[in-house]
Amino acid sequence: MAELEQVETACLSAEQAGRQAEERIKHLNLVLYAIRSVNQLIAREKDRDRLLKGACDRLIETRGYYNAWIALLDESGGLVATAEAGLGEGAFLPLLERLKRELTACGRCRNQGLRQLMTHPLPVPIVRCLLATLAGGR
């Protein structure tokens, strides 16, 4: 009887792993579609602010991402422009105020050439980011 339970457990685990793999593939396909859409936007949009906002919009409209934000910095690290989608002004404003003073932990990682992907669980420096709290694990 115990052997049968082990087989059933193994089958359920394999089935769950298969579902997770399918969900991951769906997500990656949505992300690729969003990147393609952003690439097309880059090719035709000449206005910087509309480009930034359009890129954020396209990243979330495919449902590949829940939200997106972009901060454009000058050579000295000063904030030049920002755009967001999916967060809402109320959630983005505190981040924007912080960006005017300093880069977020994830921004510092990226700026230092540490090309970390936002995965689950989040890398330790990113966990302390203001948006990590707002994102609710997403």
Task: Label this structure with key terms.
2 domains; 6 helices; 138 residues; mainly alpha; single chain; elongated
Which secondary structure elements does this structure contain, and how are they paired or packed?
Layout: H1 2-44, H2 48-61, E1 68-73, E2 79-85, H3 89-101, H4 105-111, H5 124-127, H6 130-135
Antiparallel strand pairs: 1-2
Shape: elongated
Order of SSEs, N→C? Answer: HHEEHHHH
Strand percentage: 5-15%
Largest sheet: 2 strands, antiparallel
Uncertain runs: 114-120
Query: Any idea how many domains?
Result: 2
**What class, by secondary structure content?**
mainly alpha
Instruction: Give the overall pLDDT as a whole number.
Output: 75
Can you walk me through this structure?
- The protein is mostly helical.
- It has two domains: 2-87; 103-138, no CATH class.
- It is 63% helix and 9% strand.
- It has six helices and two strands; from the N terminus they run ααββαααα.
- The chain has helices at 2-44, 48-61, 89-101, 105-111, 124-127, 130-135; strands at 68-73, 79-85.
- Strands 1-2 form a two-stranded antiparallel sheet.
- β1 and β2 (79-85) form a beta hairpin.
- α1 packs antiparallel against α2.
- It is elongated.
